[in-house]
Amino acid sequence: MAKILSLRLNYKGKFLDYAKEGKEIKKKFIIGQNKNLQWQILDPSFPDKFQLIKQKGRQYVMQLPPGSELSCEIDGKPLDSEYLKQNHLLSGNELVLNKDMKGTLTVSKDWSIDFDFREPWVAVLTDEERAIVAQYARRSKPDAISRFNRTVVWIVLLLTVAFILLFDQVLKPEYTFEETIQERLQNIQSAQRVIPEIVSPQPSFAQPLDNTPEQTEADATDSQVTTGTGPRGSAGLTRTLQGFDASATGTAPALTIATVTEGFTANRPGSRPGNGISTGRGTVAGIATGTAYNPAATPVFEDIGSVVTSGPQTGGYSVRPEGASGIHITGDASSLAPSGQSWGDVVEQQRIAADFARRGISTVNESSITTLDEDTRTKYTSLREQIESRQSQIEHAYREMQIRQNVSFTITLFIRADGTVKESQVIPNGSYPEAFVAKVKSIVDSWKFNVREEMAYQFRIRAG
After folding, report:
1. Among candidate residues 449, 441, 446, 444, the one with its CA nearest the CA of residue 386
2. 287 SS3 class
3. How many other C-beta atoms can be found within 10 angstroms of the C-beta atom of residue 99?
4. How would you class 31 by CB atoms within 10 Å of its CB: exposed for 0-12, middle for 13-18, buried for 19 or more?
5. pLDDT in tens, 47-67
6. Residue-range domain boundaries for the chain
7. Per-residue pLDDT tens for 246-298?
8. Is 16 helix (H, G, I), strand (E, B) or coil?
9. Is CATH 2.60.200.20 what the domain over 4-125 is classified as, yes or no?
10. Residue 108 and residue 88: Cα distance in Å, rounded?
């Protein structure tokens, strides 16, 4: 039977979990600090997600995490890195896994992973384990309260179903109609529409509109109405009704509407307009309140605008200012690191950069990796991947300090042969808080890489 890849996760030398090819390992296997992964490596220096196993053709390849240590053997014979490279088993940080290979990968101080190839197996439980499974693999017996509640639910359900059936068969009323639908349609069609005839009312009498002498005389004797002796009194009304002719008709009077335009006057009738002081009181805005009264005085029309006051007339500056420029900042501007200038001891940084250049160690950036020879390109590719796996630490600091703007840095690392950072040049591409820039520099200065020689590397990082 063909062997399959098997991985075992250990913490401080104690076994935690295992993963098998075809079940947990399917073309790739990812580990890291992320809580959604099957294997969590609870180490702050470990990446959030790291692809440990990937499949290339019919073989599996193990990618070595940054800073990890590898020990492997074939048929009980230990193998070193030179042997693995000569046999094309180790290239950069990728290890090709053969069927006869096994070993241990130490990913951090307390975490290690054992790998080997085994024949498929099925776990056989002991008698004690089977007893434990039989004890906890079935539902527990319900208590008295649970049984009572279940019985009540069943009784209510059965009563509800019985009531529905009883209502539908016995209690439900039957709706009947005295006539069929055909009879109702015939009654509707036989109904006739009644249209009332509207006749315009004719006036019984009309009052004459011309000013006759009789009307003038009747209007002039208004005092007779109160005494009851005139034509508008009770006796006169009786004589008028005795001579009433119901057939008498007349035409409606012709009305003419005239609209005139008049001004506004503030004078009382009978007063004299004036702007000065009259006898007793003064006049305000053409309103005379003097004591002299003249009934023959005519109203004087004046402009009402003279009594209306207006607010002050003000005007703004209509020319838009130009040529001004500014920088949007958050917080105290005095605590911002200047843009384009390296943070920290600039003199020491320049001295170390000159020392690296004097010894022929050139600074390689991200875009120039492809122009290097194969061996050097492999080294700097591995270094770039290690840096990318650590950039999440800077993003975490960005979120923790609540920087409310997009940030960008140009960082140059001068690395010793043991992998530690000798010095770094952290240049902010914008005005950022000094505390955040100092935090970024302290993070990159604490990095340690899996390298074997001095290297200088420059890269850009963005956050936000």
Report:
1. 449
2. strand
3. 13
4. buried
5. 999 999 998 888 899 999 988
6. 4-125, 338-463
7. 565 555 555 555 554 444 444 455 445 444 444 444 444 444 444 455 655 55
8. strand
9. yes
10. 26
Provide the token pair at 388: 């990318």
What span, in angstroms and rounded, lies between the C-alpha atoms of 198 and 41? 99
The arithmetic mean of pLDDT across residues 345-370, rounded, is 89
Find the range with the poorest average confidence among 132-141, 162-171, 435-444: 132-141
* Structural element, H or E, at residue 459: strand 455-463
Cα 32 → chain centroid: 30
Q: How far is CA 406 from CA 327, 330, 430, 439, in A?
A: 14, 12, 9, 16
- H helices of 115-143, in order, are 127-136
CA-wise closest residue to 95 among 109, 108, 80, 110: 80
Q: Of 112, 111, 97, whose CA–CA distance to 21 is shortest?
A: 97
Q: Tell me what the pLDDT averaged over the chain comes to.
A: 76
Q: Using an 8 Å Cβ cutoff, are 364 and 458 in contact?
A: yes
Helix (H) or strand (E) holding 148: helix 144-166
| pLDDT tens, residue by residue, 381-440 | 999 999 999 988 998 888 888 888 888 999 999 999 999 999 999 999 888 888 888 999
d(CA 372, CA 382): 14
The answer to whether 416 touches 321, Cβ cutoff 8 Å, is no
Scanning 197-306, the segments in alpha helix (DSSP H) are 213-220, 224-227, 234-242
Helix (H) or strand (E) holding 434: helix 434-445
Residue of 249 and 9 predicted with greater confidence: 9
Close Cβ partners of 383 (under 8 Å, ≥ 6 residues apart): 415, 449, 451, 455, 457
Taking CA atoms, 173 is separated from 78, 161, 169, 270, in Å, by 94, 19, 10, 89
AA letter at 269: P
Coil/strand/helix, residue 37: coil
Sequence-separated contacts (24+) of 294-300 with Cβ below 8 Å: 294/270, 295/270, 297/269, 297/270, 297/271, 297/272, 299/265, 299/267, 299/269, 300/265, 300/267, 300/273
Distance CA 404, CA 412 (A): 25
